[in-house]
Write a structure and sequence with these properties.
Layout (H helix, E strand, L loop, with lengths): L1 H26 L5 H12 L2 H11 L3 H23 L6 H21 L6 H25 L6 H5 L1 H4 L4 H34 L2 H6 L51 E6 L5 E4 H5 L4 E8 L10 E10 H8 L7 E6 L4 E5 H5 L5 E6 L2 E2 L9 E3 L13 E7 L7 H4 L11 E6 L5 E2 L2 E10 L7 E6 L5 E2 L1 E2 L9 E9 L2 E11 L2 E2 L17 E6 L1
Parallel strand pairs: 1-10, 12-20
Antiparallel strand pairs: 1-2, 3-4, 4-7, 5-6, 5-10, 7-8, 7-9, 11-13, 13-17, 14-15, 14-18, 16-17, 18-19, 18-20
Helix pairs in contact: 1-4, 1-6, 1-9, 2-5, 4-5, 5-6, 6-9
Bound molecules: the ligand Nc1nc2c(c(=O)[nH]1)N[C@H]1C(S)=C(S)[C@@H](COP(=O)(O)O)O[C@H]1N2 and molybdenum atom (MO).
Molybdenum atom binds next to loops.
C-alpha cells in the first residue's frame, strides 16, 4: 500500500498545481506556484550555481530548472502521501505548509493578495483529494482491522471487500489525475489566450528607417562551411533572461516612462514612437556569461529609436551618470548615461532582422547598446528609463555580485575545426568570429602548437560595433595539435590572462586540441 499512498500524494500534488494554474489564469501569470517558486529560485540562485547551470545547460537552463523542481515535487509529494493517515494528516500538513509559502511568494510577485489565491485554492483542493484518497486506502488496506476513523468514513460503510476497496482507490487516483490535468490544461489555454501577443505581433507593421541599411559588403560574410554566419537569424539568436514566463506585452499596453533625475519626465506610447523615424543598425550583442569559445553572442540588424534623442527630451540633470532601465517583469540594468548619449548607436529597438522583435527577445521594445554586455544594457520588454546615479541605484545582477560596469571585452571564437575533433591531413581552413564592440577588430592571429602568432584573413568590417569573421589556411600534419586564436583591437592583442565570467566577463585565448590523421 505504500506505493499507492505515494501515488495518491503525487496525484494530489498534481491537483494542487493544476487547480492553481486554472486560478492563475485569472489572478495573473506570475502567481501560479510553479512559476512563482521557480522565479524565486532563479532570483536567489548563488552565482556559482547559476554560472555552472548556464555553462552546462546553456539556454536550456530553464527547462532543467523545471525538471529539477518537478523531481523534487514528485519525491516530496510521494513522501507526504506515504505518511498521510486518516487519523494522522501528516501529508496534509506538509501540503498546507507548501501552500502558505507559495501563497506568500505568489502575492509578492503579483504585488497583491490575489496572487495568493492560486496557491491557496490549489492547496485546498489537493488536501481534500489527499484526505479522500487516504480514507479509501486506509479502508482498503485492512478492512477488518481498520482504524476507527476509517470505519466511520463513507468509503468503509458500504462494507467493501479488499478487492473492491482497491478498485475504489485506483478509481480515486485516476479521477484525481484526470482532474489535475484537465484543470492545468484549461488554465494554460485560458491564461495563454488572454495574454499571448503572437497574433498581435504578426500584424505589426514596422516603420521604415530614415536611411535604409545599405546592402552588406560582399566580403562581410565569407560563407566558409562551419563558420557562423555574419547575421544571426532570429531563430538561432541566443536567449538569456530571468523570465520563466515570457512577458506578453501588447503595443497598446506598452509605454516607456523616462523619469528620475530629469528636468521633464516624459512617457512615450507605441503611437508616439511610430510618429518618429527610426534608424537601422547592425550590432553584435554579447552576454557577460559567455565562456571562452561559447555561443552566447549574436549579431542582428536592429531597427529602433536613438536613445540620445529620447533622453534629450527628458533633459537629464548634470550630476546623473546612470540610466537604470526597468522591464515589465521587474528586471533592471544599469547603463552609464554617457554610453547612451556619446553618439554611439544606442537605441530603443522595436525590430530585429526585419521583423518586429521576437517575443522572447523583448517584444515590443528593448534596449540595444553597442559595446556593453547585455546585463548592463539590453533590457527586454523595457518600460522605464530611470535616470539616476551609480552611487544611488544598483541593478539586478550587480546586486548579485556582478560588476556595475560591463563593457564588452575583446574576444574571439574558433568555429571550425570543432574542438576535440578529428580531421584529415592537408589543407584545412581554421575559421571563427572576432569581436571588440565599439573599438573595432583590427586583426586576428592564430597560433599552432606554441609557434609564432600569424595573421588571419578578416572579413570586411561593417562597423566597429559588430563582429568580423576570420579564416586561416593551415597545412595540417598528422598528430595532435593545439590551436589558439586572439583578436587585436586598437589597444593591441586581447589579454592572454584567463579569467572566469564572474564578475565582468571571461578573458583568455580560445584553445583547442585536435587530432589530424
Ligand atoms: N527583461 C530582461 N531583459 C534582459 C535580461 C533579463 O533577464 N530580463 N537579460 C539580459 C541579458 S543578461 C542579456 S545577455 C540579454 C540577452 O538578450 P537576448 O536574449 O535577446 O539575446 O538580454 C538582457 N535583457
Ligand atoms: Mo547576459
Amino acid at each position: 500500500m505504500a506505493f499507492l499512498r505515494a501515488v495518491a500524494g503525487i496525484v494530489a500534488a498534481a491537483l494542487v498545481l493544476g487547480v492553481a494554474e486554472l486560478v492563475a489564469a485569472f489572478a495573473g501569470a506570475g502567481s501560479a506556484p510553479a512559476y512563482a517558486l521557480g522565479a524565486t529560485v532563479v532570483d536567489h540562485t548563488p552565482d556559482g550555481v547559476r554560472e555552472w547551470a548556464i555553462s552546462t545547460f546553456g539556454t536550456s537552463d530553464k527547462a532543467v530548472l523545471f525538471v529539477c523542481m518537478g523531481v523534487v515535487a514528485v519525491v516530496v509529494a510521494g513522501v507526504a502521501g506515504i505518511f498521510e493517515r486518516t487519523s494522522r494528516p501528516a501529508g496534509s500538513v506538509a501540503f498546507a505548509v507548501f501552500g502558505v509559502v507559495a501563497a506568500v511568494i505568489g502575492a509578492g510577485r503579483i504585488g497583491g493578495l490575489v496572487g495568493a489565491l492560486p496557491a491557496l485554492i490549489g492547496t485546498a483542493a489537493g488536501i481534500l483529494a489527499l484526505r479522500a484518497l487516504t480514507r479509501r486506502i486506509d479502508a482498503a488496506s485492512d478492512p477488518l482491522r481498520s482504524e476507527p476513523e476509517a470505519d466511520a468514513s463513507p468509503s468503509h460503510t458500504d462494507g467493501s471487500t479488499a478487492g473492491s476497496g482497491r478498485r475504489r482507490v485506483l478509481g480515486g487516483i485516476v479521477a484525481t489525475g484526470v482532474l489535475a490535468i484537465g484543470a492545468g490544461l484549461a488554465g494554460r489555454l485560458l491564461g495563454g489566450a488572454r495574454r499571448d501577443v503572437t497574433a498581435e505581433r504578426a500584424t505589426v507593421e514596422l516603420p521604415r528607417a530614415a536611411t535604409p541599411l545599405p546592402d552588406l559588403p560582399p566580403d562581410a560574410d565569407l560563407r566558409v562551411p562551419g563558420l557562423t554566419s555574419y547575421i544571426t537569424p532570429n531563430s538561432d539568436f541566443y536567449r538569456i533572461d530571468t523570465a520563466l514566463i515570457v512577458p506578453q506585452v501588447s503595443t497598446d499596453s506598452w509605454s516607456l516612462r523616462i523619469h528620475g533625475m530629469v528636468e521633464q519626465e516624459i512617457t512615450l506610447t507605441w503611437d508616439d514612437l511610430l510618429r518618429q523615424t527610426p534608424v537601422e543598425r547592425v550590432v553584435t550583442l554579447a552576454c557577460v556569461s559567455n565562456p571562452i569559445n561559447g555561443d552566447l553572442i549574436g549579431n542582428a540588424r536592429w531597427l529602433g529609436y536613438r536613445l540620445d534623442e529620447l533622453l534629450a527630451r527628458a533633459r537629464p540633470l548634470p550630476d546623473a551618470d546612470m540610466v537604470l532601465s526597468h522591464s515589465k517583469d521587474g528586471w533592471t540594468a544599469g547603463s552609464p548615461l554617457s554610453a547612451l548619449t556619446d553618439g554611439r548607436d544606442a537605441m530603443l529597438a522595436i525590430g530585429m532582422n526585419g521583423e518586429p522583435l521576437p517575443i522572447q527577445h523583448g517584444y515590443p521594445a528593448r534596449l540595444v547598446v553597442p559595446g556593453l554586455y547585455g546585463y548592463v544594457s539590453a533590457t527586454k520588454w523595457v518600460t522605464e528609463l530611470e535616470v539616476t546615479r551609480f552611487d544611488k541605484a544598483t541593478a539586478y545582477w550587480t546586486r548579485r555580485g556582478w560588476s556595475a560596469q560591463g563593457p564588452i571585452k575583446t574576444g574571439t571564437r574558433i568555429d571550425t575545426p570543432r574542438a576535440r575533433g578529428r580531421i584529415p591531413q592537408g589543407r584545412t581552413v581554421i575559421a571563427g568570429v572576432a569581436w571588440a564592440q565599439h573599438r573595432g577588430v583590427t586583426g586576428v592571429e592564430v597560433q599552432i602548437d606554441n609557434g609564432d602568432w600569424r595573421p588571419a584573413r578578416l572579413s570586411t568590417e561593417v562597423t566597429i560595433d559588430t563582429w568580423r569573421q576570420w579564416t586561416f589556411d593551415w597545412d595540417a600534419t598528422p598528430g595532435q595539435h593545439t590551436l589558439r586564436a586572439r583578436t587585436l583591437d586598437p589597444t593591441g592583442p586581447q589579454t592572454a590572462v584567463s579569467q572566469d565570467v564572474v564578475p565582468d566577463g571571461a578573458t583568455g585565448y580560445p584553445t583547442l586540441t585536435i587530432q589530424v590523421q
